[in-house]
Amino acid sequence: MEYTAKYITEDIKLSCYDDKLFKTEMMFDQHMLVWFISGETKIVQSEATYTFTAGDIFLIPRHQLATIINYPKDGQPHKTVVMHLTTERLRAYYANQPVYAGAPAEQKIHRFRDHPLLHSCLASLIPYFEVKGPFPEQIASLKITEAISILRTIEPGIDAVLAQYDVPGKIDLVTYMEKHFMFNMPMEKFGYLTGRSLTTFKRDFKKAFQTTPQKWLTQKRLERAHYLLSEKSYKPVDVYFETGFENLSHFSFAFKKHFGYAPSSLPIPRALSGNR
Fold it and tell me: Which single residue of 136, 171, 179, 254 has CA 20 to 30 Å from 221?
């Protein structure tokens, strides 16, 4: 994979992938505002799947688990401008601004298509990526402040996302894990997102599921993979993307070991075969 990144500051970068695809699973520590210049991204979350292409602009709230698949498209690389809206900057911004008490925005990806105000703000950063030497922090701060102000103008209730600084509190472990098992995260991340230390997470997990986290996760992912293959006619390469396996060979090996046959050996679902 050919990957390059140019940074104006540590919070603003121009990212470029020039290969068939790049897949990763992430938990975002900071809010991210992303503008697509070219290429395509598929973001798989527990309750929704999003596809973004050239011109799209979206905000990913922090503490969101996601599988991200980046593709070049139409002969163009996967190219984006990414702006991190850090807790430190947001605290500084809201120290001098009232927090609107409107209807709360959902903690989900917010899509703005090619909104002219956001497009203008993010496109204006492009020339700065060619500037040699350190980028003035004052200008970077102004651009981030501009982006925050635009988001508040065009998205009622976004303060409920941006002005929320709390770390995750202790939540129901069973509900969370049943909803997010397909994300290949370190156990420390699962612990953090459920409001637990690693030791407490493992202890509570064993109490709730009567097994270790790794055994349970593997079982759940394989069951989900079998369902997608047998009932939804997914291809093995698509299944491993969405069930938390590191790569196709790892998925195929684990699947055959568990079920006794390769994922490619599953018969075509009856309902589908009858239409052929």
Answer: 171
